[in-house]
Automatic annotation (TrEMBL):
Ribonucleotide reductase N-terminal domain segment(s): 3-73
Name of the protein this chain belongs to: Ribonucleoside-diphosphate reductase
UniProtKB keywords: Allosteric enzyme, ATP-binding, Deoxyribonucleotide synthesis, Disulfide bond, Nucleotide-binding, Oxidoreductase
Record-annotated membrane-spanning stretches: none
EC top class, as a word: oxidoreductase
A cellular-component GO term for this protein: ribonucleoside-diphosphate reductase complex
Catalytic activity: a 2'-deoxyribonucleoside 5'-diphosphate + [thioredoxin]-disulfide + H2O = a ribonucleoside 5'-diphosphate + [thioredoxin]-dithiol
All copies of domain Ribonucleotide reductase large subunit C-terminal, residue ranges: 152-225
EC numbers on record: 1.17.4.1
Similarity section: Belongs to the ribonucleoside diphosphate reductase large chain family.
Protein role: Provides the precursors necessary for DNA synthesis. Catalyzes the biosynthesis of deoxyribonucleotides from the corresponding ribonucleotides.
Protein backbone atom coordinates (compact mmCIF):
# COMPACT_ATOMS: atom_id res chain seq x y z
CA UNK A 1 0.00 0.00 0.00
CA UNK A 2 1.05 3.62 -0.60
CA UNK A 3 1.02 6.04 2.33
CA UNK A 4 -0.01 9.70 2.15
CA UNK A 5 3.63 10.75 1.77
CA UNK A 6 3.91 8.54 -1.32
CA UNK A 7 6.06 5.88 0.32
CA UNK A 8 5.21 2.20 0.16
CA UNK A 9 4.26 0.33 3.35
CA UNK A 10 6.75 -2.49 2.93
CA UNK A 11 6.11 -3.71 6.46
CA UNK A 12 2.60 -4.72 5.35
CA UNK A 13 4.10 -6.83 2.59
CA UNK A 14 6.40 -8.54 5.08
CA UNK A 15 3.40 -9.22 7.32
CA UNK A 16 1.62 -10.78 4.34
CA UNK A 17 4.60 -13.05 3.63
CA UNK A 18 4.74 -14.14 7.28
CA UNK A 19 1.03 -14.86 7.34
CA UNK A 20 1.24 -16.76 4.04
CA UNK A 21 3.87 -19.11 5.47
CA UNK A 22 2.29 -19.57 8.89
CA UNK A 23 -1.28 -19.99 7.71
CA UNK A 24 -0.78 -21.78 4.39
CA UNK A 25 2.71 -22.99 3.43
CA UNK A 26 3.66 -24.56 6.76
CA UNK A 27 0.20 -26.10 7.14
CA UNK A 28 0.29 -27.69 3.68
CA UNK A 29 3.90 -28.84 3.35
CA UNK A 30 4.48 -32.59 3.65
CA UNK A 31 6.67 -33.35 6.67
CA UNK A 32 9.68 -35.67 6.46
CA UNK A 33 11.92 -36.62 9.37
CA UNK A 34 15.12 -36.17 7.39
CA UNK A 35 16.50 -35.66 3.88
CA UNK A 36 16.96 -39.36 3.16
CA UNK A 37 13.33 -40.11 3.96
CA UNK A 38 12.29 -37.24 1.73
CA UNK A 39 14.42 -38.22 -1.26
CA UNK A 40 13.48 -41.90 -0.96
CA UNK A 41 9.80 -40.93 -1.01
CA UNK A 42 10.15 -38.56 -3.96
CA UNK A 43 12.09 -41.11 -6.01
CA UNK A 44 9.87 -44.07 -5.11
CA UNK A 45 6.71 -42.14 -6.02
CA UNK A 46 8.07 -40.88 -9.35
CA UNK A 47 8.47 -37.24 -8.37
CA UNK A 48 12.26 -37.12 -8.86
CA UNK A 49 14.50 -38.85 -11.38
CA UNK A 50 16.89 -41.23 -9.67
CA UNK A 51 19.57 -41.22 -12.36
CA UNK A 52 21.06 -37.77 -11.72
CA UNK A 53 21.03 -38.21 -7.94
CA UNK A 54 22.85 -41.55 -8.24
CA UNK A 55 25.85 -39.66 -9.64
CA UNK A 56 26.52 -38.24 -6.17
CA UNK A 57 27.10 -39.77 -2.76
CA UNK A 58 24.38 -39.11 -0.23
CA UNK A 59 26.83 -37.01 1.79
CA UNK A 60 27.43 -34.79 -1.24
CA UNK A 61 23.70 -34.36 -1.80
CA UNK A 62 23.19 -33.59 1.87
CA UNK A 63 25.91 -30.95 1.79
CA UNK A 64 24.27 -29.18 -1.17
CA UNK A 65 20.99 -28.96 0.76
CA UNK A 66 22.90 -27.78 3.83
CA UNK A 67 24.49 -24.97 1.81
CA UNK A 68 21.11 -23.87 0.46
CA UNK A 69 19.48 -23.79 3.88
CA UNK A 70 22.48 -22.01 5.44
CA UNK A 71 21.48 -18.83 3.61
CA UNK A 72 18.26 -18.63 5.66
CA UNK A 73 16.52 -17.29 2.57
CA UNK A 74 13.41 -15.16 2.99
CA UNK A 75 11.18 -14.03 0.18
CA UNK A 76 11.34 -10.22 -0.15
CA UNK A 77 7.66 -9.85 -1.03
CA UNK A 78 4.36 -11.69 -0.89
CA UNK A 79 4.15 -11.88 -4.68
CA UNK A 80 7.57 -13.54 -4.98
CA UNK A 81 6.61 -16.15 -2.38
CA UNK A 82 3.22 -16.75 -3.97
CA UNK A 83 4.76 -17.03 -7.44
CA UNK A 84 7.24 -19.68 -6.33
CA UNK A 85 4.82 -21.87 -4.41
CA UNK A 86 2.05 -21.47 -6.95
CA UNK A 87 4.10 -22.08 -10.11
CA UNK A 88 7.44 -23.72 -9.29
CA UNK A 89 7.35 -25.77 -6.09
CA UNK A 90 6.76 -29.49 -6.53
CA UNK A 91 3.37 -30.61 -5.24
CA UNK A 92 1.59 -33.90 -4.72
CA UNK A 93 -0.26 -35.34 -7.70
CA UNK A 94 -3.56 -33.90 -6.50
CA UNK A 95 -1.89 -30.45 -6.08
CA UNK A 96 -3.07 -30.15 -2.47
CA UNK A 97 0.25 -30.58 -0.62
CA UNK A 98 3.67 -28.99 -1.09
CA UNK A 99 6.75 -31.19 -1.47
CA UNK A 100 9.47 -28.57 -1.97
CA UNK A 101 10.60 -25.37 -0.35
CA UNK A 102 12.67 -22.83 -2.25
CA UNK A 103 15.93 -24.28 -0.93
CA UNK A 104 14.89 -27.76 -2.07
CA UNK A 105 14.21 -26.61 -5.63
CA UNK A 106 17.51 -24.74 -5.83
CA UNK A 107 19.40 -27.79 -4.52
CA UNK A 108 17.80 -30.13 -7.03
CA UNK A 109 18.42 -27.73 -9.92
CA UNK A 110 22.08 -27.39 -8.92
CA UNK A 111 22.55 -31.16 -8.63
CA UNK A 112 20.77 -31.85 -11.91
CA UNK A 113 22.58 -29.20 -13.95
CA UNK A 114 25.99 -30.13 -12.53
CA UNK A 115 25.45 -33.69 -13.81
CA UNK A 116 27.55 -35.42 -11.17
CA UNK A 117 30.21 -32.72 -10.81
CA UNK A 118 30.05 -32.00 -7.08
CA UNK A 119 32.23 -28.88 -7.16
CA UNK A 120 30.08 -27.43 -9.93
CA UNK A 121 26.94 -28.19 -7.92
CA UNK A 122 28.43 -26.33 -4.94
CA UNK A 123 29.18 -23.34 -7.15
CA UNK A 124 25.70 -23.35 -8.66
CA UNK A 125 23.83 -23.60 -5.36
CA UNK A 126 25.82 -20.66 -3.97
CA UNK A 127 25.17 -18.60 -7.10
CA UNK A 128 21.43 -19.23 -7.05
CA UNK A 129 21.01 -18.69 -3.30
CA UNK A 130 22.88 -15.38 -3.57
CA UNK A 131 20.38 -14.40 -6.29
CA UNK A 132 23.25 -13.77 -8.68
CA UNK A 133 21.79 -16.11 -11.27
CA UNK A 134 18.32 -17.44 -11.92
CA UNK A 135 17.81 -20.27 -14.46
CA UNK A 136 15.15 -19.78 -17.10
CA UNK A 137 11.67 -20.94 -16.10
CA UNK A 138 11.72 -24.30 -17.96
CA UNK A 139 15.00 -25.27 -16.27
CA UNK A 140 14.09 -24.08 -12.79
CA UNK A 141 10.65 -25.67 -13.01
CA UNK A 142 11.52 -29.02 -14.59
CA UNK A 143 15.09 -29.95 -13.58
CA UNK A 144 15.17 -33.20 -11.63
CA UNK A 145 11.50 -34.05 -11.99
CA UNK A 146 10.47 -37.49 -13.22
CA UNK A 147 7.31 -36.25 -14.91
CA UNK A 148 8.06 -32.94 -16.51
CA UNK A 149 8.15 -30.77 -19.56
CA UNK A 150 11.40 -30.16 -21.40
CA UNK A 151 14.01 -27.71 -20.19
CA UNK A 152 13.59 -25.43 -23.16
CA UNK A 153 12.73 -21.78 -23.35
CA UNK A 154 11.51 -20.14 -26.54
CA UNK A 155 10.86 -21.02 -30.17
CA UNK A 156 10.15 -18.68 -33.09
CA UNK A 157 8.08 -20.05 -35.95
CA UNK A 158 7.52 -18.56 -39.38
CA UNK A 159 3.95 -19.01 -40.65
CA UNK A 160 3.27 -19.19 -44.37
CA UNK A 161 0.13 -17.92 -46.07
CA UNK A 162 -1.42 -21.21 -47.17
CA UNK A 163 -3.92 -23.25 -45.18
CA UNK A 164 -1.39 -26.08 -45.01
CA UNK A 165 1.22 -23.71 -43.56
CA UNK A 166 -1.23 -22.45 -40.94
CA UNK A 167 -2.29 -25.97 -39.94
CA UNK A 168 1.33 -27.08 -39.69
CA UNK A 169 2.21 -24.08 -37.51
CA UNK A 170 -0.69 -24.82 -35.14
CA UNK A 171 0.34 -28.48 -34.85
CA UNK A 172 4.01 -27.64 -34.16
CA UNK A 173 2.99 -24.95 -31.67
CA UNK A 174 0.86 -27.43 -29.74
CA UNK A 175 3.70 -29.97 -29.60
CA UNK A 176 6.19 -27.36 -28.35
CA UNK A 177 3.72 -25.99 -25.81
CA UNK A 178 3.06 -29.52 -24.54
CA UNK A 179 6.78 -29.81 -23.80
CA UNK A 180 6.79 -26.56 -21.88
CA UNK A 181 8.34 -24.35 -24.53
CA UNK A 182 7.34 -20.75 -25.09
CA UNK A 183 6.32 -20.17 -28.70
CA UNK A 184 6.33 -16.98 -30.78
CA UNK A 185 4.94 -16.89 -34.29
CA UNK A 186 5.66 -14.44 -37.11
CA UNK A 187 2.38 -13.84 -38.95
CA UNK A 188 3.69 -11.17 -41.34
CA UNK A 189 3.25 -13.40 -44.37
CA UNK A 190 -0.50 -13.79 -43.82
CA UNK A 191 -2.67 -11.66 -46.05
CA UNK A 192 -4.81 -9.01 -44.42
CA UNK A 193 -8.54 -9.44 -43.96
CA UNK A 194 -10.54 -8.86 -47.12
CA UNK A 195 -7.83 -9.52 -49.69
CA UNK A 196 -8.46 -11.61 -52.76
CA UNK A 197 -7.88 -15.35 -53.23
CA UNK A 198 -7.67 -16.53 -56.87
CA UNK A 199 -9.26 -13.27 -58.04
CA UNK A 200 -12.17 -13.65 -55.60
CA UNK A 201 -12.43 -10.36 -53.72
CA UNK A 202 -12.89 -10.05 -49.94
CA UNK A 203 -11.99 -13.71 -49.40
CA UNK A 204 -9.25 -13.75 -46.76
CA UNK A 205 -10.03 -13.80 -43.04
CA UNK A 206 -6.83 -12.07 -41.89
CA UNK A 207 -4.56 -12.70 -38.92
CA UNK A 208 -7.17 -12.36 -36.17
CA UNK A 209 -8.85 -15.64 -37.06
CA UNK A 210 -5.51 -17.45 -37.06
CA UNK A 211 -4.62 -15.88 -33.71
CA UNK A 212 -7.88 -17.20 -32.24
CA UNK A 213 -7.05 -20.70 -33.48
CA UNK A 214 -3.59 -20.44 -31.94
CA UNK A 215 -4.99 -19.15 -28.66
CA UNK A 216 -7.34 -22.13 -28.38
CA UNK A 217 -4.53 -24.52 -29.32
CA UNK A 218 -2.19 -23.14 -26.64
CA UNK A 219 -4.90 -23.25 -23.97
CA UNK A 220 -5.51 -26.91 -24.79
CA UNK A 221 -1.90 -28.08 -25.11
CA UNK A 222 -0.14 -26.11 -22.35
CA UNK A 223 0.31 -29.12 -20.06
CA UNK A 224 3.66 -29.44 -18.36
CA UNK A 225 5.51 -26.16 -18.58
Amino acid sequence: MIQKDGKYQFEKDKEAVHSYFVDYINQNTVFFHDLKEKLDYLIKNDYYEEEFLSKYTFEQIKSIYKIAYSYKFRFPSFMSAFKFYNDYALKTNDKTKILERYEDRVSIVALYCADGDYEKAVEEVHTMMKQEYQPATPTFLNAGRKRRGEMVSCFLLEVGDSLNDISRAIDISMQLSKLGGGVALNLNKLRAKGEAIKDVENATKGVVGVMKLLDNAFRYADQMG
